[in-house]
Amino acid sequence: MADKSLLISNISRLVTMDPADGREGRLGVIEDAAVRIEGDRIAWLGRAAELPLVQGPEQVIDAAGCVVMPGLVDCHTHLVHAGFRQNEFNLRSQGKSYQEIAAAGGGIMSTVAATRAASAEELLESASMRACAALSHGVTTIEIKTGYGLEVKTEAKMADVISRLRKNTPQTILGTQLGAHVVPPEYRDRRSEYLQMVIGVMMPNAARSGAVSACDAFVEEGAFTKDEARAVAGAGKILGLALHLHADQFTSSGGGELAAEMGALSADHLDEITDKGISAMASKGVVGVVLPGASFFAGRGHYPDARKMIDLGLTVAMATDYNPGTNPSLDPWMSASIGITQMGLSCDEALAAITRNAAAALGLSDRGRIAAGLRADLVLLDAPDEYFPLYRYGMNFVKQVIIGGERAS
Fold first, then answer.
1. First CA to last CA across the chain, in angstroms?
2. Residue 133 and residue 107 share a domain
3. Tens of pLDDT along 375-394?
């Protein structure tokens, strides 16, 4: 933690994500602004002309006309894994279906096999490189799921890597136990036994270790039923774990309604969610997390209707869903651009989705906005305004990242 105040001056546009009188638009922009940080918290923000003097030493960062906005929150990733699946991408480009690839030993189980075979040190090294890449895009908080072990030993190994990564990176790392990802082939005829292992061993182990603060289940045909997900949610509640759900990705499985019923923090994917599911989530305050990169890269030509979700009152967040199979990208800006062009989001809504709303999807109220008393996670953008990085997709305009009041890049 910084032991003296830090002043960021000469900010062209301060994007607070906190609309108020005297600020511009839905994003609460302050022009010609400054931000003062004390320790790891924001102490003051406003127009530079109104900056109060301080006694004692103060470190100064000259933003040189940069745009400053909250650090990005990637609220759904599978950052810890071994191996890649570019060969499957090649096969898909030749017309092979996911089912054909999986039957030949590909799909998620190829990642499971590689992750089981990798050492914890190998997983930590590769995950650290990915966290660094995410940082270069301005990501200051990352959620990471297990779920590529699907056995007690490897799920514990993944949880341990998440814990070690938390100590090795400047970013905030939140872990989620996803033993209920899919049923592994060796338990195909014993799925109840596998589910009991998830609930009775994997989840308690991860919770006791402190590696995770949430649990998740994939509610979908070929994965887990709603009743099985209820069992996961119930066990998680006893363990003090928050709940996320992979829901309504390929079929309208009622995952949105289940998320509302079980008091989930979020339901994620939602490509096939119904109006009833959207309304149920909105009524219970469940955040809808859309994953544009996965919808794009899977090549199905179908995207969640984020416009309808917002119009029906749902809080919509956005994440990369980084994973080696359906979105090997760590760039939230690209996801946001896809969300705008393909899912009906406005630029303002997309920026809120990767900051303020993504923080809400993780149950975090101290970030995602720039306000006095909140955590000092900030991104400096070498761009004429906050919309330029969305417009010039595929380029990186992040000049500097501040995490907890400290320079992280």
1. 15
2. yes
3. 999 999 999 999 999 999 99
